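FW: tagging you since you asked about this chain on Friday. Here's the raw sequence from the shared folder, copied in full. Didn't touch anything.
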Amino acid sequence: SERCTRDALSLGYRMIDTAQFYANEEGVGKAIEQSGISRDEIFLVTKIWLTNGGEERATKSLEESLRKLRTDYVDLLLVHQPYGDYHGIYRAMEKALSDGKTRSIGLSNFYDARFYDLAGVFLAAFSGLGISDYHIFSLIASLSLVVFCLFTLLHPVRKSFDAITLWMLTATSA
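HL: got it, structure written out here
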């Protein structure tokens, strides 16, 4: 991962996707540090793996991820999978956001039922944090999930919404 990241950075890539499960954080961190590129020019993503479920374990695992990535913060922190104590992971991520250890938080690989399970938590967090942008970046989001997000997140709070799922609306409604 170190060599690949070094090559990608030298070619101009500035978004690096890592995850605890991918075991690439240490190599990525080393490559970024050695690149000479300012950290604020790189958008760095990592994901908390399901075995680090629960608030305390998730918090400790994020500290370990930051150490391996050789940074004080990530730009986007995600719950990697909707299994185990993902509510605890999410609570740890909210704290990391308020502590400045991440600039944004979200969910990865969540199917409808698990997303709806966290929707109330999400809405409360978004309202309390004054978040103004909502994004769906998913190749597997269902039409019902996209519609839920549009009506629940966009309409009541009149915020911007970027849905990179336009092609899916046609594909899933057929």
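FW: Residues 112-129 form the longest helix (18 residues).
HL: agreed, and The chain has seven helices and six strands.
FW: great, closing this out.
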